[in-house]
């Protein structure tokens, strides 16, 4: 059994305890932050052991596999736990040198997941235990550690053998996204192959037709790209290489097949799995078009690893319910607070694996949230610590969206009869800013004859929410949100505005300047004179309470996990459905039926200039 080398080299401390304390205080957003890994000490016990099998994972080409871990401690306690480390060598020789005074750490990298040892029945009485972990291919090997002392004062008493996937560098977890043109699809994936050792490409073609190859670009980032702790310290993990290919000149609604691959320098080709997708409809095309929108999902663990067992309970339900209905979904928008990695980089890989059944089949469009972007003195509009030092780098690198500059994560995308204007609430959106100009251009340049359904998307609530923290502020939205943008929504007749950030579901009446402009609740027709606002932040993260009183503009509120599905039947008929993640059933809905003239009709603050008739 090969055990990682624990010949500890004199090193400077690689993390400041105060920073870890702050991270732990935010542990409800990232449970790995509750581990005081900077305090871990080595106390190897020759009578304790831990071993993992099988030694080689993914023998059949799978990107995930189950591992059986057996262990024994002569002094079993409820504070014993099993940690998974990757790379397998996690001793202090891997610590970066940081010029900070303090005690040199024995371990300075966080595990990627863990379970408590007493999850195995009989452990406390016999000292023996057996648990199973589900691992994904993350470009490196794995080892398991048996620790005691709980999460606050961990002591390492045994280390397992090393295990690894058959090909740790294999291309995995493709992510589709709309390109900058309607007839372009982008494919992004992750691998362990740098361009110096393999050429990345996508092999693709029309279903049942000949194939072609399109090359991919390759990017990565390093520890220095991170803006703060824990992303620069205990949360850091090498992201591998991220590849993006642009498949162009697609035929509208045509089915295509594809698989990602790498041609090694010796001519050998390593392929990923094969998938299919449907190309986007032509802008204005009259066909059935189905859209999913939600925010704040995060990730969860199918092996019940403790780091997420009591957090994000809706995440897997949302993922699995969407997968079951995937044949009836054309495009997905995940509108911020994507992973809740909060500086623990390994969690991004685990999220991409969780949503792969979705992202490999339909465009999966992102919006930026506070847990992706916010960090002080880095250009974000809010000076919070919610990104854990990622400062947008992970989202901007791992998921393509058709922005002009990925650092400014706002963009527009057309899908048939829909125009989507996606804002970035972590950058200034107020009048006079670059983003405000983008929003107005996106809203004003759509041809409503051809694309009648105009949708605004943002992470933070710029419209209306009776979530308790907004209600306590008295703003019922992000301060300065409505006052900057409501005239644009009204002027350009935005149908529906979607938000995340508040972890529940809420729908308003059609509204302008805090006043409902319709008494209808389930069917809207005729002149369009206000925007409906929907909070869809119940993708999977912990549920957030509403205010005690319900505002007059709030039509439906739900404290549960769910998502919205929009179905455009034609240029005049749209169906809105709120579905719960637990069962996929509809709990709130409405329809819109109207003609082009209803968008043109003169209403308050949206009236084209008139000329005298001849």
The share of residues in helices is: 10-25%
The proportion of strand residues reads 25-35%
Tally of strands: 33
Helices and strands: which structural class? alpha+beta
- Uncertain runs are 1-28
Question: Kindly state the mean pLDDT as a whole number?
Answer: 92
Radius of gyration: 25 Å
Separation of termini? 94 Å
Shape assignment? globular
Strands side by side in the biggest sheet: 11-12-15-14-13-16-17
Number of helices: 11
Largest sheet: 7 strands, antiparallel
Give me a quick take on this structure.
By secondary structure, this protein is α+β, with helices and mostly antiparallel strands. Helix content is about 15%, strand content about 30%.
Describe the structure in your own words.
- There is one protein chain.
- This protein is α+β, with helices and mostly antiparallel strands and 614 residues long.
- The protein contains 11 helices and 33 strands.
- The strands form 7 sheets. It has a 7-stranded antiparallel beta sheet. It has a 7-stranded mixed beta sheet with strand order 20-19-18-31-32-33-28, with no helix packed on it.
- Helix 4 (315-324) runs parallel beside helix 5.
- The radius of gyration is 25 Å and the shape is globular.
- It starts with 16 loop residues before the first helix and ends in a 14-residue tail after the last helix.
- Mean pLDDT is 92; it is low at 1-28.
